[in-house]
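Progress against Task 2.4 (sequence-to-structure conversion) is shown through the following example record, which the project officer requested during the mid-term review.
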Amino acid sequence: MNYIRWVADNASGFGGDGERIAVFGESAGGNLAAALAQESLRRGGPRITLQVLAYPAVDRFNDSPSMYEHMTGPILSRSYLEWFWGAYLSTPDQGADPRVSPARSDELAGPPPAVIATAENDPLRDQEERYARKLADAGVPVQHLPVKGAIHGFLSFTGPVQLSRDILNQLSDAVATAFN
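Structure tokens generated for the chain above:
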């Protein structure tokens, strides 16, 4: 949380505006960006203008159909997810904390608008879609970008894959729109 405060306090030093901050993250970074948006709201600032989440891991205890449909990947498998969560948490119980699993928060009214890109062939897809609906149901403006045929981590392929470049352009357009 101190990092976002530092950005707000020092934004003018690097040509930014401390009153207009966006957070962006992919996968585990999407988890951190979503948790940061919620925590910033709980702590009374700094205000975040937009959260951009690309295939975020937002629920440690997700056991949805996509976790089984895509349990062997490609790229991200259920066993990798278990390993990552085990490396991240000291105890499994920590996964219930909304700072770890933002989708488990009961206080979703008020976070910044969200743009959430989900990949069709991703074990995390269902939890991401559920999170987008939960935010929308709480009154948060949400732009959901379901990406047909994509796999977890698809933004890593923006060089050779036109679909990845197109989605990255849509995400950057959402940021530009939020700041205009």
